[in-house]
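Quick illustration, no need to memorize.
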Amino acid sequence: MARALVILFCLLLLPVAAFADRQPEPIAYRCDGEPLTALVNNGAVDAFDIPNVAGGTVPGAFVVLQWRNITLQLPRTNHAGAPSFTDGKWWWSPEDPSHPIFQLRRGLGEIQSFSCDPVG
């Protein structure tokens, strides 16, 4: 009986151990001529039956952008369609990975767009 419990315990941990070393990889871009890295993380989400899991992300996911000596952690929006990330000021949408949308809200109706292209 104890042996069966040990085997069961090992089988339960196997899927967790198989994915434990899988860390998301940052993607390198050039935005307005300067290097930017984007690292998408699904975060600590435990409700996998949430609708709109487009792009392999779910609400609760976030992206970390490093650009021009700033680091932004933007939560995933819950808009339908391709995933996008915003904090209400900055907005990142890799819907087209060859030309992601990166924008900054400056004020009432004023939005600054940065041209981004993948590196490599």
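The chain has one domain: 22-118.
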